[in-house]
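In this section we walk through a basic example: taking a raw amino acid sequence and producing a predicted 3D structure, encoded as discrete structure tokens. The instruction is simple. Fold the sequence below.
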Amino acid sequence: MKGWKIGLVGLLLLLAVLLVLPFLIPTDRYKSALQAMASEKLGEPVNIGRLSFTLLPWPAATLSDLTIGAQPPLKIGSVTVTPDLFSLLSDVKVIHSVALRDMTVNPGLLSRIPEWAKPQPGPQTVAVRRVELRGLNLDLGTLKWGPLQADVRLGDAGLQSVQAGPEDGSLSISLLPETQGGYRLAFQGKRFKLPIKPALVFDSLQGQGKLSKHALDLSQLNARLYGGDLQASTRLDWGDDWQATGTSKAVGVEVAQIVKMLSPSSAFSGRLHADGRFRMVARTPATLVDHLQATFRFEVEDGVLDKVDLAQAAKLLTRQGARGGQTRFDHLSGIAEVEGKQYRLREIKISSGILNAEGDVAISPAKELSGQVTVELKGTATLVAVPLNVSGTVQDAILLPSGMALAGAAVGTGLLGPGLGTAIGSKAGQALEKLFK
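The resulting token sequence is shown next.
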């Protein structure tokens, strides 16, 4: 019994020493030496706010409030280094893990990382086996994403695996090396919110692809969102320029919430079916979306087009034009072309119980509208087809009958009376307008 008590007292004394000893280490001297070594290695000034040591549960050193560089500086909340004690007497010192907490990656930092990561000439004397990141935030202009986490495993041959994603668990990304070079990428998520505008929310998301030194090739992407399905493939290349190309197909996606994200004051509903291609080339990843080139065939079923009343505009036949209202439709189809911030909607066809319409409309970068839509009203004694010039803005569209259609309608009404005379006159005016174009 007495020996047991002595052993317990000894263990408690040892634990006390291990807890107190780190506070007795002269950290200022080591901190200055570490700052000088790191500055020489990275080629930029390094400042360590605080250096501390722990011996339990494993010996480790923590650098807090770390700043690297000056234009702009990289700030890291803390870096904890845990060495492998059994390797301290070996030629190659093994670091069991490096844990980084609270840091932001910006475009300036991305351009400097390759230089920092260059290996020093001669034999390597330090090997890192694991890198853990928590509280990582990406700030790449239009792309702001975080906090993120990552767990990187390294071996003698290089990268062994990466597990990464948002800290909320909405997306999990895995990266594994392939024998022929490059890395196999796989990801899956639930309730994942896209970190760029529009901030789409995916009920489920999964995909796979390959990552190489200068490209990311996503051969398969399947998603469920807003009551519909999305299938896509894309390739991202980087070098002198950033380039993205791909295809996508949407089936039965409800567009009302998506339109609200793009334009809060607009309303457009219906189930979207679309299929097309896209391409983007830019100097930086943050400006890729500004250089989007895309062509999609689309169909929308059972929806409402807000701020436009095609039936009312066709009935009025006034020089003031028609504003506001809404058009309910059974089917809307066409071809959407995007070039930067310029949009063109070609071969538009709209049908409902009271009208048929077709035409072409362009939307300028300033959200100004131009084009023409011909509306045929049903349910009247005579099928009336009225060409409407489209102008105004996305928020305040104006539908105005063409000048020749108005003149023809006025003459027809005067000669044959309203109704039949108006319809015949409008048709005649439309024919004359086409003749003299």
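Looking at the output, two observations stand out. Residues 7-24, 403-437 have pLDDT under 50 and may be disordered. The CA atoms of residues 385 and 427 lie 7 Å apart. In the next section we compare this with other chains.
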